[in-house]
Specification:
single chain; 209 residues; mainly alpha; 9 helices; elongated
């Protein structure tokens, strides 16, 4: 535990991670609850802010992947629907926005040791502060199964691209669904295996803005 780390705590720039709290509580003969009881509202606020930022970055990248997948599938089968200059400019803008989100999203997922979409969904479900309502229950259910929803949306994007092109057929649609179902199932299995092996560790709390 370095002097700089302690200095950051004293200046309220960062907060101790869970491992540091365990050590301090043991050395002081106290409990973690007693150490952080006064800071709980601030901790919840900061974690909620970071979770909302992570959700926004994820939604932007998901929208980019779905739209570009749809457009690429349509264009890949000879359609010129998206070859107009307006659509090319739109693609360039979408690519710029997506690239602007890549580094922040990577940094946040790395900070929280998130590898699979299932872990992302569980993190958001745990840390987002939402008012209880029917819509909230639906949102939390989707977050708990984010890996499946993510794969389903990408499948729909590919199917929509095939439907808008001349290559669409029931056989092709069934093949696409089977391929994506296998990919989703493989991802879910990997996620569960990672959870059995300990899953992501508790990360440092986000810095105060």
């Amino acid at each position: 535990m370095s002097r700089q780390t302690i200095s950051n705590w004293e200046r309220n720039k960062t907060l101790p991670d869970i491992e540091s709290l365990k050590v301090m509580a043991h050395e002081l003969g106290s409990t973690i609850d007693a150490l952080v009881s006064d800071d709980v509202p601030e901790i919840k606020r900061r974690v909620d802010v970071e979770a909302r930022r992570l959700l926004a970055l994820y939604l932007v990248t998901l929208a980019f992947y779905c739209l570009t997948t749809f457009m690429n599938v349509v264009s890949g089968f000879g359609s010129e629907a998206f070859d107009a200059p307006l659509w090319r400019y739109l693609r360039a803008v979408m690519l710029g926005v997506a690239l602007a989100t890549v580094i922040p999203l990577w940094c946040l997922t790395r900070r929280h040791k998130i590898v699979y979409y299932g872990e992302l969904g569980r993190y958001l479900d745990k840390n987002l502060v939402l008012e209880e309502s029917s819509a909230t229950k639906i949102a939390r259910s989707m977050l708990q199964h984010l890996q499946i929803w993510n794969g389903a949306l990408m499948t729909l994007a590919v199917l929509a691209g095939f439907a808008a092109s001349s290559a669409f057929s029931p056989g092709a649609a069934l093949g696409i669904i089977i391929v994506f179902a296998i990919i989703i199932a493989f991802g879910v299995c990997c996620d569960k295996e990672r959870q059995r092996n300990g899953g992501p560790v508790n990360p440092p709390l986000p810095p105060q803005r």
